[in-house]
Amino acid sequence: METDIFFTSEEKIALFGLYRRLLKLTGDALQKGDCRKLKQLLIQTVSNHHIQRDIFGLNPIIKDMQTAVIVAEEIGMRRASILGVMLHDSARFGACSIEEIEKNYGEDVAGIVRGLIRVQQLYTKSPAVETENFRNLLLSFAEDVRVILIMIANRVNLMRQIKEVDNEEARQKVAAEAAYLYAPLAHKLGLYKLKSELEDLSLKYTEHEVYYHIKDKLNETKASRDRYIAAFIEPIRKKLEEAGLKFHIKGRTKSIHSIYQKMKKQKCPFEGVYDLFAIRVILESAPEKEKQECWQVYSIVTDMYQPNPKRLRDWLSVPKSNGYESLHITVMGPEGKWVEVQIRTERMDEIAERGLAAHWRYKGIKGESGLDEWLTSVREALESNDTQGLEAMDQFKMDLYEDEVFVFTPKGDLFKLAKGSTVLDFAFAIHTRIGCRCIGAKVNGKNVQLRQALHSGDQVEIMTSNTQTPKQDWLNIVTTSKARTKIRQALKEMAAKQYAFAKETLERKMKNRKIDFDESTMMRLITRMGYKVITDFYQAIANETLDVNFIIDRYLEMQKRESDTHEEVTYRSAEGFSMTPTTEETPSAKEDVLVIDQNLKGIDFTLARCCSPIYGDEVFGFVSVNGGIKIHRCDCPNATDLRTRFGYRIVKARWAGKAQGTQYPVSLRVVGHDDIGIVTNITSIISKESGITLRGIGIDSHDGLFSGTLTLMVDNTAHLEALVKKLRTVKGVKLVERSKM
After folding, report:
1. What are phi and psi of 394, to 5 degrees?
2. Where in the chain are all domains bearing CATH 3.30.460.10?
3. What is the rounded average pLDDT of the residues 619-635?
């Protein structure tokens, strides 16, 4: 009784008609008991209200049977696919389980039902079905290619049934999806007829006026078009018969959707589309004569009509990777109209027309890696007429996108990642900032760690923390080059920030303890502490593995030890000092001037290492925090800062007496051409100078130039200036100057 209520009188008539048609199509494909068990299950499903009409009010039982007819009749699929179509709604609505289906119908049928339900769930999960990524995911997610074929057949059936429904919004959505999702899938699979029907019906529903405008134009011109094709074919037919060829000729008109696309691309009206039709010459040739006879037809056609050489497509010499073979040429027919002529044999035409040969793929969508081989396998299975070929199709499992995974965000956005990608890879794929702050994720609602591998169809919600920063071991977690590059970049930026922060911390603490920061002394300390790279030293401070106060203590120890061993002369006290009687050097009585003399004693002074003053330089004294005085050159790089910030600690100073045997360290910078013997000439001049000793030399050569630093021991500025003048005369030397640091 319940079953009668569920079916209208029109639906009952349609049901029995479809049932008889399906039995005729399946023949002996179904096993004994399949029909009886299926009928009982469907009656039970309807009686218990497990199954419901769709958004258009269509009866799901009727719709599934219509889809099964398309699957069997237009695609040529067998038992497992037909039963899968009829059973999946019952399983989806809970009338039976996958396990029961496997028990009653076998694992193959259960696999298709499982795939259909899984894809349906995937479809409802993401709103982004218009993307190429979603199509790819659909292909990989279905696992079994038959699931995709059934989905295409189902959408074709739905498009046929909704022409008179009232729900316009739902129809628009279904029609749009047919164009951007299912038609491209049919195109990839070579189901040209179904692809064209999907496109035409989609255009009919979404752009009603355009569709009927083109359709009316085609109807108006049909008679004249038929006459033109007949006139075009007749002379060709005569020539082919005279040549003794066995053949037949077909004429076809382009689909409405294809014409519309040409109108948009060429920006012209219907009348401006010149190649509305094509002629197909199909030869009955022996295998060994196929190419010869095809080229013979080509010669006959092009002798009669002017060909367009740019439109020659030779898939005879080198067939398409999917097995398609044909010869296409566009010629100028009567009345100045272009006509496309396709030349092929019966065998070639059968391959092109059976569906999965992907005949028209050259016009639009290009296959991804591995697609051609996959299509070839499917085509060969479908072309086989024997039971073994059909069984091979039933068992065919696709691995088209085995090297990629597709995952969703919580909002339904779809991302394509390399196989083996982890949560951390996905975080960096979204945005570098999210990747750097990632602490984990929820995958399908469950908390997982950063290294969790992702699988196609996973829904991933990345969890972040503002306190999280990239770690070195993250490079061992990620698998994608993008994530690895971003992590390295972030680590480098962090290291630079930590370097600056650690150095600033060290200098600030030294300033608080009133200790001057001397770069050269610190560099020697860093080397002595065993650090080969300065960034490692400051990284240790940032990581708190080195204590700043410990470093400062070591710094003071080194500074004191170097001061004690430095060749400094401490003279007698100022009380016993007898100043050279030169009136110009007598300071005003009001001025407090430190006079640096060989016999000066009782005053703790040192020569600053930042500028290395020597006898004869204009100098000043700076009272340090420990009470001693440092002597700086007036042109010392630190002079301006010291005078500005610590003017009250500046002491005027000058040299007195004469330099007697005491030598001071000084550095010279030399730049010149990298000529043979130039260094030898420089060192030879220095060795001949009395009162000057060469203590060290460093040379760096680059692009034909050299830059060297000479460390000398000099007794006064007069000798130094004389040496500089001599060095400037050396051939090839361009610059000699005293280093300020």
Report:
1. -60, -30
2. 216-366
3. 81
**C-alpha 415, offset from chain centre:** 11
| pLDDT for residue 390 is more than 50 | no
Per the rule left: phi > 0, alpha: psi between -120 and 50, beta: everything else, 127 is alpha
Q: Tell me the pTM.
A: 0.51
Residue 491: which of 562, 435, 421 has the closest Cα? 435
CATH fold of 664-738 reads Alpha-Beta Plaits (3.30.70)
Q: Which residue has the tokens 């793929």?
A: 361
* 274 or 105, higher pLDDT: 105
Query: What is the residue type of 300?
Result: I
Q: What percent of the chain has pLDDT over 90?
A: 15
Architecture of domain 216-366: 2-Layer Sandwich (3.30)
C-alpha torsion 176→182→183→184, nearest 10: 110
Q: Where in the chain is CATH 3.30.70.260? A: 664-738
pLDDT at 279 over 80: yes
Backbone angles phi, psi at 546, to 5 degrees: -120, 130
Distance CA 184, CA 190 (A): 10
Tokens representing residue 182 in the block:
């299912």
Considering the chain, tell me which residue range(s) the CATH 1.10.3210.10 domain(s) occupy.
Answer: 2-206
DSSP assignment letter at 71: I
**Does the 2-206 domain belong in CATH 3.40.50.300?**
no
In a 13 Å sphere around the CA of 17, the CA atoms on its Cβ side amount to 9
How far, CA to CA in Å, does 691 sit from each of 166, 255, 377, 729? 109, 101, 92, 20
Three-state SS at 705: strand
* DSSP-assigned states of every residue in 372-395: HHHHHHHHHHHH--SHHHHHHHHH
The helix (run of H) or strand (run of E) holding residue 416 is strand 414-418
Start and end residues for every CATH 3.10.20.30 domain found in the chain: 404-479
Q: pLDDT (tens digit, 9 = 90+) per residue, 133-161?
A: 555 556 555 566 778 888 889 999 999 99
For residues 657 and 660, give the distance between their C-alpha atoms in angstroms, rounded to a whole number: 9
Residue 642: name the closest of 619, 664, 665, 626 by CA: 619
Extract the runs of DSSP E, i.e. beta strands, from 109-169. none
- 351 neighbors 324 (Cβ within 8 angstroms): yes
The letter for the amino acid at 398 is: M
CATH of domain 404-479: 3.10.20.30
Please give the mean pLDDT across all residues of the chain: 77
Give residue 677's pLDDT.
73
What does the alpha-carbon distance between residue 549 and residue 569 come to, in Å, rounded to a whole number? 32
Amino acid at 371: L
556: confidence class by pLDDT, cuts 50, 70, 90? confident
For the segment 64-92, the average pLDDT, to the nearest whole number, is 85
With bands split at pLDDT 50, 70 and 90, how would you rate the model's confidence at 123?
Answer: low
